[in-house]
């Protein structure tokens, strides 16, 4: 099932390119997941049909309770990142033996087609990271990996933007900087365009992911190359805090982010992240 949050409410795409607005007491999928649940979207009456191209799409979960980002979850990215850390004098950082996690403000979320705004205090080294995002459907606290998939509502696309200069300050010991701060600026977590429920995927989730900037492919990998699977991520993160319906986990990015080539985002750029069977997330970059 493919579900969208629109400016008119929740919609289901039963036919490619056509949305059916649903008669639900919820305005976005976060409310649906924490309330009546996905089954309500399967059975809800249809109030109107409209073309997908004409719909105003919001983030599937407009304001997640929390966003958890996982670092170094593709071997290709881990290798380039460890080289960069070593150059910064952080040779103590090695390949992860368990997931690396940061908590990000839900207020950073925007939807497809919304603008990414370069922050006034850190506009020069804003970087993209195309990622597969997991949306929690059922509360998860210390769940084992073999049951973790049952707690996932579905998958969407994320662009895990960050201000690399602030991130670098955090990595080199600046006490007033943090990775979470660098990645929590307003508009730094585009999500969308839809939520595709887990019944449309095998649990191993082998999907092609590409990130383009102004049409140029910058990242190209497959989610089957994860170091830690979705089930392992959910199980691990749920040991530290209860994952609630509507929470979002960004599962990591592959090789090719701008920090490793010095090609940061500038006003006027368009970033497109595409993931097989989910769609495309497109956002334009604007000045502060």
Description:
The structure is a single chain. This protein has 288 residues and is an alpha+beta fold. The chain has 2 domains: 2-54, no CATH class; 67-286, Fumarylacetoacetase-like, C-terminal domain (Fumarylacetoacetate hydrolase, domain 2). 17% of the residues lie in helices and 33% in strands. It has 7 helices and 18 strands. It has helices at residues 29-34, 38-43, 75-87, 145-148, 164-171, 179-182, 230-237; strands spanning 2-6, 9-15, 18-22, 46-51, 67-71, 100-104, 109-110, 116-117, 126-127, 130-136, 152-159, 162-163, 189-197, 208-213, 216-222, 248-250, 270-275, 279-286. The strands form 3 sheets. Strands 1, 2, 3, 4, 5, 6, 7, 10, 11, 13 and 16 form an 11-stranded mixed β-sheet that branches. It has a 5-stranded mixed β-sheet with strand order 8-18-17-14-15, with no helix packed on it. A two-stranded antiparallel sheet has the order 9-12. The protein is globular. The relative contact order is 0.21. The model has no long low-confidence stretch (mean pLDDT 95).
Q: Total helix count?
A: 7
Low-confidence runs of at least 5 consecutive residues: none
Residue fraction in strands: 25-35%
CATH-level-4 superfamily name of the largest domain: Fumarylacetoacetase-like, C-terminal domain
Order of helices and strands: EEEHHEEHEEEEEHEEHHEEEHEEE
Largest sheet, in brief, is:
11 strands, mixed
Domain Fumarylacetoacetase-like C-terminal: 66-285
Pfam families: FAA_hydrolase
Protein name: Fumarylacetoacetate hydrolase
GO molecular function: hydrolase activity; isomerase activity; metal ion binding
């Amino acid at each position: 099932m493919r579900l969208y949050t629109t400016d008119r409410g929740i919609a289901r795409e039963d036919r490619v390119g056509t949305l059916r607005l649903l008669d639900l007491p919820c305005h976005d999928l976060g409310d649906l997941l924490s309330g009546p649940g996905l089954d309500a979207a399967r059975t809800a009456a249809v109030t109107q049909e409209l073309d997908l191209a004409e719909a105003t799409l919001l983030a599937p979960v407009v304001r997640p309770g929390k966003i958890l980002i996982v670092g170094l979850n593709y071997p290709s990215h881990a290798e380039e990142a460890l080289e960069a850390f070593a150059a910064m004098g952080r040779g103590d950082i090695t390949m992860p033996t368990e997931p690396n996690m940061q908590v990000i403000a839900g207020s950073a979320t925007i939807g497809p087609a919304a603008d990414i705004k370069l922050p006034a205090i850190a506009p020069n080294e804003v970087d993209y990271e195309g990622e597969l995002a997991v949306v929690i459907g059922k509360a998860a606290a210390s769940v084992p990996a073999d049951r973790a998939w049952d707690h996932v509502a579905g998958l969407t696309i994320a662009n895990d933007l960050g201000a690399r200069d602030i991130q670098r300050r955090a990595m080199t010991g600046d006490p007033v900087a943090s990775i979470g701060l660098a990645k929590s600026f307003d508009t730094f977590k585009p999500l969308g365009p839809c939520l595709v429920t887990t019944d449309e995927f095998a649990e191993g989730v082998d999907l092609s992911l590409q990130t383009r900037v102004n049409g140029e492919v910058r990242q190209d990998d497959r989610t089957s190359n994860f170091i830690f699977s979705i089930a392992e991520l959910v199980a691990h993160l749920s040991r530290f805090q209860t994952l609630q319906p509507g929470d979002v986990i960004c599962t990591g990015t592959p090789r090719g982010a701008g920090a490793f080539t010095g090609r940061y985002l500038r006003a006027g750029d368009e970033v497109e992240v595409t993931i097989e069977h989910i769609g495309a997330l497109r956002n334009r970059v604007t000045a502060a």
